[in-house]
Specification:
Length: about 375
C-alpha cells in the first residue's frame, strides 16, 4: 500500500504545483488517512515540495480505528504539551523554503488559521478547497474490497437479528445488539449510530432509538453500517412484525421499493447526480409524497459515511465508474410510520453488468 499512498500524495502535489502552491497542509482526518494510511488523533500531514511528513502530538497506536501508517512517511512527534501539529507543519514548510502553503480552509478554524499564518508570516496561505475530497471520489479496487467486506458484515448482523424474537424488545436494545454483532463479525465498529424505528417511528431518517417496544403489526425500520479498515457502508431495510402486512403497508412499501429500484438503475457512468435523485424522487413525488421527502436520495460513502457525491436535486456533476454511493428513498407518515430502503452500490458501466450491489439482504417485505 505504500506505493498507493505515495501516488495519491504525488497527484496532490502535482495539483498544488499547477495552482502555484509549493506545499499542502492536510488537517481533515479522513483526508489524512487517505493520503497517509492512518490518522492518529490530531495528526496533520504536510505534503511538501519534496518530502512528506506527518505531525503528531503522540506516537501512532496502530489501532484499527486509526489505520496503519505508510512507512515511507517521515513522522514528527511534538515535544511540548499543547503544541499544535498544524502550526509545527507550517513552521516546517517555511523552513524548507516553501513560498506558499495550501490549507483546508473548510476544516481549519479561524483561530487555527491565524496561528498557522502567524508562525510563518512570509508563507503565503492559499485555499486547497476540496482537492483531496475530489481525489477520494473514485475508489480503487482495494478500497472497494474494504467496502464489500463492510457490506457483508452489515448483512450478517442484520440477518442474525431477523432470526431472533423481536416483539417486546426496545428500539434501543435492538440498536445496541446490532452494533455488537457488527463488531463480532469483524467490523472496527459501526459506521454511524445505528437507527431502529418501530411503529410511528419507522421510516424516519436517522431516527434515534428510543425505549418504545416492538409491537405486532408494526413497521420496523433499521439502518446500520459497518466500519471496516476505515471504510463505511450503509444498509436500510423495513419489515412488518408478527402478522400479515396491512394493505396500506404493502402499498407504501411497494412504492418506496419502486423508487429505490429506479434510483439504482440510474447509477451509470455519465449520469448526473441530480438525474439519479430525480429517478427515485419522481416515483414518490407522483404519488403525492414530494413535500415530505429528504433533501437527497443518496450520497457517497468511503472513509466517511456521508461524502461526495450528493445525489440531490441541485447537485452538479456526473458519476464516474468505481464511485460507491447509497440509494435511500423513504416515506414517513406522521403518527403511522413509514418505509426506508437503503443500499450501498458501486457505479459500474453496463458492459460490466451495471451497478454493483454491495448490500444484499433481501428487499422483500418480510413479516417477522
Amino acid at each position: 500500500m505504500s506505493d498507493v499512498y505515495a501516488a495519491r500524495r504525488g497527484l496532490l502535489r502535482e495539483r498544488c504545483a499547477a495552482a502555484g502552491n509549493s506545499a499542502a497542509l492536510i488537517t481533515r482526518p479522513a483526508n489524512v488517512r487517505y493520503l497517509a494510511g492512518a490518522s492518529p488523533l490530531g495528526a496533520v500531514l504536510l505534503v511538501g515540495p519534496a518530502d512528506d511528513e506527518l505531525f503528531c502530538a503522540a506516537p501512532p497506536t496502530g489501532e484499527a480505528d486509526e489505520g496503519r501508517l505508510d512507512e515511507g512517511l517521515t513522522l514528527s512527534l511534538l515535544g511540548g504539551p499543547g503544541a499544535d501539529p498544524a502550526v509545527a507543519a507550517a513552521d516546517r514548510a517555511a523552513a524548507v523554503r516553501a513560498d506558499s502553503l495550501a490549507v483546508e480552509e473548510h476544516h481549519l478554524t479561524v483561530a487555527r488559521h491565524r496561528a498557522v499564518s502567524s508562525v510563518a508570516p512570509r508563507l503565503r496561505l492559499a485555499d486547497l478547497g476540496s482537492a483531496v475530497e475530489q481525489q477520494r471520489l473514485v475508489k480503487d479496487e482495494e478500497e472497494i474490497a474494504c467496502l464489500r467486506i463492510a457490506a457483508e458484515i452489515a448483512d450478517q448482523a442484520l440477518g442474525e437479528l431477523l432470526e431472533s424474537i423481536l416483539v417486546g424488545r426496545t428500539e434501543r436494545h435492538l440498536a445496541l445488539e446490532l452494533e455488537r454483532r457488527l463488531v463480532d463479525h469483524g467490523a472496527d465498529g459501526p459506521a454511524f449510530p445505528t437507527s431502529v424505528g418501530t411503529g410511528p417511528h419507522s421510516g424516519r431518517s436517522r431516527h434515534r432509538p428510543s425505549d418504545r417496544r416492538v409491537e405486532e403489526g408494526d413497521f420496523l425500520s433499521v439502518c446500520l453500517g459497518a466500519n471496516y479498515r476505515g471504510y463505511r457502508c450503509e444498509i436500510g431495510r423495513t419489515f412488518v412484525i408478527g402478522t400479515t402486512p396491512a394493505d396500506w403497508q404493502i402499498e407504501l412499501y411497494d412504492l418506496v421499493f419502486a423508487a429505490q429500484r429506479a434510483g439504482r438503475e440510474a447509477l451509470l457512468p455519465g449520469a448526473t447526480y441530480r438525474d439519479v435523485d430525480h429517478a427515485a424522487r419522481s416515483v414518490l413525488d407522483s404519488a403525492g409524497y414530494g413535500e415530505a421527502l429528504a433533501g437527497c436520495m443518496g450520497h457517497g460513502v468511503g472513509l466517511e459515511i456521508d461524502e461526495d457525491p450528493q445525489l440531490a436535486p441541485t447537485a452538479m456533476g456526473k458519476l464516474d465508474a468505481c464511485v460507491p454511493v447509497t440509494v435511500e428513498p423513504g416515506v414517513h407518515l406522521p403518527g403511522r410510520g413509514g418505509v426506508r430502503i437503503d443500499d450501498t452500490l458501486v457505479v459500474r458501466p453496463e458492459a460490466d453488468g451495471g451497478p454493483e450491489l454491495l448490500t444484499i439482504t433481501t428487499k422483500e417485505l418480510l413479516a417477522l
